[in-house]
Amino acid sequence: MTGVALGFVPAPLVVPLDRILPSRKVPAGLATSRKFRQIRASIQEIGLIEPLSVAAMDAGTGQHLLLDGHVRLVVLRDLGQEDAPCLVATDDEAYTYNNRINRLSTIQEHYMIRRAIDRGVSPERLASALSVDVSHIAKKVNLLDGICPEAVELFKDRQFSAELGRVIRKMKPTRQVECAELMISANNLTVAYAEALLVATSASALVDGMRPRKVSGVTPEQMARMEREMANLQGQYRLVEQSYGQDVLNLVLARGYLAKLLENAKVAKYLKQQQPEMLEQFAAIVEATALE
């Protein structure tokens, strides 16, 4: 069994910043961006967490080509640092470094912040490190309060505003799950959409002590109709969800059959002469890329 070759030297190497050569220009206005301020605040508060990625030293110039960490390099220079820990890559292929990033979901951020606070990090220090207001940290900490586990499971891989929890927790667990499914199916996890779902929620589906929100210009009859339409939409969504896999399979099989059929010159000629509209529809199905 052959071993897997490492992409970098395991032990970090401390390299003077004047020996690190950027491989690309940083965008104009970087110093005023939110990302820059967050990285600067984090490095200033707790230091550099992720080392820079550099290529091996060039024998002629004595410099290391920077593969990843251009913003961090600018921040370190801005803070007056003279050197930085670097991971020396065994190749000079920058494509492999952070070009495809899985962003942390909102719930993952919640767990990380809760863990940091449980370990003694103050909310004020977290806010300073992330360059956000302390109230934002508080919202992240309390994100899942009052949210049922089933709804949390649906939201776990999504990114959304911390304000969403404030709206969802006003509903009972069953309604929370219904709204989560609707928001995900619509690919709309905004607070405004959640507020609209809350308005359309009946009093029986709200937590104890909550009253249905009154909307100016909407009569009780219109609200009742909205609730009926919402219930109908939820039913249709469940029906589609149950049959979606089989429907897609049938479409893929039908597409393959039509492709074979149209490859027959005689069949294609007959359809062109006798049923041109049908041939056009068949061709559109065969050329569809959504099923690939």
UniProtKB/TrEMBL annotation:
Pfam families in UniProt: RepB
Q: Tell me the InterPro entries matching this sequence.
A: Chromosome_partition/occlusion, ParB/Sulfiredoxin_sf, ParB_N, Plasmid_RepB
User: What cellular component terms from Gene Ontology apply here?
Assistant: chromosome
Q: Does the keyword Lipid metabolism apply?
A: no
Q: Which GO terms describe its biological process?
A: chromosome segregation
Q: Which UniProt keywords apply?
A: Plasmid
ParB-like N-terminal domain location is: 13-107
**PANTHER family noted in UniProt:** CHROMOSOME-PARTITIONING PROTEIN PARB-RELATED
Its protein name is: ParB-like nuclease
Q: What organism does this protein naturally occur in? A: Methylibium petroleiphilum (strain ATCC BAA-1232 / LMG 22953 / PM1)
